[in-house]
Amino acid sequence: MSGPNFDDLVDQGLDLEERARLLRVHELLIAAGPPPELPPSLASPPPEPKATLIPLNRGRWRTAGLAAAAALLIAFGAGWLFGNHHGALDVQRTVMMTGAGGAHASLAVLPVDSAGNWPMRMTVSGLPALGHRRTYTLWLTKKGRLQAPCGTFTVGKGTTTVRLNAPYRLSEYSGWVVVQSGTTKPVLKTETV
Amino acid sequence: MDVALRLPLPPPSRTASIPRVTFERATDGELLTLVGTGDRAAFEELYRRFARPVLGLALRRLGDRGRAEDATQEAFASVWRSARSFDPSRGSGAPWLYAVARNAIVDGLRRTPEPVVEPPDTASDEAGAPEQAEASWVSWRVHRALEVLPEHERPMIALAYWGGLSQSEIAEFLQIPLGTVKTRTRSALARLADALEGELE
Q: How many CB pairs under 8 A join A and B?
């Protein structure tokens, strides 16, 4: 797998030792390949497997209490951070999609609004421009089937950036695909390793 | 009428040897130890760090995304069940998790074997088992290390390495200055170098 040119990523002027260290990371990133995108169904850990209930002694109750307090604190902190950042940097998740002939797309999922909309910014390259009134559609999928449309768009030459929206509970779906509107064959789909 | 009960307070526990640390700064081993005590919040942090590496491992081994997702769920259920057996004196958390996840994936494979296919006529160019194991381990470590990146640095790496975007395209996509992209990319690489120290030797 090829990757970006290291010299394009890192400015000149690094000392040799640091440069060698970062170059090694660069090589490892290329060797490792992309981490898989977590499908919405894996967005949260599995529920606790059923287990035998063991009565807690005082020490364990205290531990459990502290853990609950810590979780509450983390949840509060996360909520505070979430509620105080509204900008281009609030990308919740970046999903890579690929297709035939080097076509690819980056889908930046932005924070959900109070009504349950997940705004998304999609940058698409390499898809052919379609004829008059023909469009592409982004779909959420489940078990390999198109389930919920997230908007239509057209593309031009080069890179196209569009804003789309998913007014759904993302955790109920397993991936995204792009199809030509009115068809079911994906031209772009969520990248896997 | 209120009745005040005067009971002797229990002495401080001598067995609580695990310091309460912020989960984000806790090592994988500390989290595993907490998970072993039934700490759900620690389990969730562990999941945040390792969900992608486990799914990546399952995809490499199983090939099929649906089965890999099931195997990932099973691997974490297995982590939850067996975390009490983790012994921090015998090594760090990541190799232990790797072993538990790999075993869960292999067990899942035994339960639902891959469909039988005709053997190919020509020799495979695929790497042999040791090379595959080495590649899986490197991917595991790198994907785990990516989870240490702050939210504002992770997209720089993802878009540059796997999105095929140049630095100026990333700036345009994220609507931030090019200089910021360069600074964050370098910072992310340095952070990864720190996290992957063992791999760099």
A: 170
